[in-house]
Amino acid sequence: MTAERQVKVLSGWIALPVTVLLYIVGPVLLYLSSTSGIKDAAGKTQLVAWMLWVGLAALGLAILSSFGYFTLQPNEARLLILFGDYRGTTRQGGFCWGNPFYGNGPSGQGKSRGFGLKHADRGEAQVARRLPRYKVSLRARTLNGDKLKVNDRAGNPVEIATVVVWHVRDTAQAVFDVDDFEAYVGMQSETALRHLATAYAYDHGEGEETEITLRGNVDEVSQALKEELQERLAKAGVEVDEARLTHLAYAPEIAQAMLRRQQAEAIIAARQKIVQGAVGMVDQALHLLSEKNVVEFDDERKAAMVSNLMVVLCGEQQVNPIVNAGTLYQ
């Protein structure tokens, strides 16, 4: 893989006076070469050869050096390519000057439209528009992925989406080791998300409360997604800052069935909690009544009281008391 080499370039404010001076000296010498020569017998002034050549050279250098100026914003870098050879990357912001022969972008720049181009040429032209003069942004970028329909580990179809925050770490790898690093990030993010969804179940199954699931362990799943993405994008010189799930739901065709299942599980869990609490309250009531000698219970009376208390405590509707005027035995 290609490794980035950071290099320094000359400040544009230092090179600018030299270019301006060349623009002044060149025309002046060309003018003097035609006026300071010796007149021949016909009265024509002969050109001064050295002034002519020096003036032309100065004017040519001034024009050539004008193509070496460029600017870099904060968190922006430029790759320096000289006749196809990678010479390094500069990250110093501001007004800069480099070799005028440094490449100005991938071939295909200037093809603003893809009409009449092959697929590979269109992709190259798109890269050229994003990387003018081989400038690469180092800022953090956000990839908001589309909703994907995949099967979880249990085979249930689910809809899932993710958001990935990333930035370019190595500009040389991003430009030279992959064809289009932005498209590469998008494709690898989708591939990693599909692989992650098949590795975990959507929710806990029966008797599997300790397993990691997509819905119940969002932080663990997001960390696993980030690690897999970083491994896949390392060859493109990309650093993954954060990766999290933004959407998770059952597919529409099974959403209603799974909703009824979740409702049934919730009802069962609530009933279990209510019964456990009711049994504890009944036991405490019987214990206090016996301890304080409020009433003596035989087995039949104890069973009747337990039955009444369980009905009152576990019933979903309000209970209306009925006063018994007789006894349990008549």
Rounded mean pLDDT score: 80
Q: What proportion strand?
A: 15-25%
Largest sheet: 4 strands, antiparallel
Q: Class by helix and strand content?
A: alpha+beta
Continuous helix count: 8
Topology of helices and strands:
Blueprint: E1 10-11, H1 12-35, H2 49-66, E2 69-72, E3 76-82, E4 85-90, E5 94-97, H3 119-130, E6 135-137, E7 141-144, E8 148-151, E9 157-168, H4 171-177, H5 181-199, H6 218-233, E10 238-250, H7 252-291, H8 299-314
Antiparallel strand pairs: 1-5, 2-5, 3-4, 3-6, 7-9, 8-9, 9-10
Task: Explain this structure.
The chain is of the alpha+beta class and 330 residues long. The protein has four domains: 1-76 and 86-103, no CATH class; 104-139, no CATH class; 140-250, Band 7 domain (Tetrahydropterin Synthase, Chain A), CATH 3.30.479; 257-314, no CATH class. Helices cover 46% and strands 18% of the residues. The chain has eight helices and ten strands. The chain has helices spanning 12-35, 49-66, 119-130, 171-177, 181-199, 218-233, 252-291, 299-314; strands spanning 10-11, 69-72, 76-82, 85-90, 94-97, 135-137, 141-144, 148-151, 157-168, 238-250. The strands form three sheets. Strands 7, 8, 9 and 10 form a four-stranded antiparallel beta sheet that branches. A three-stranded antiparallel beta sheet has the order 1-5-2. It is rod-shaped. The chain starts with 9 loop residues before the first strand and ends in a 16-residue tail after the last helix. Residues 108-122 have low confidence and may be disordered.
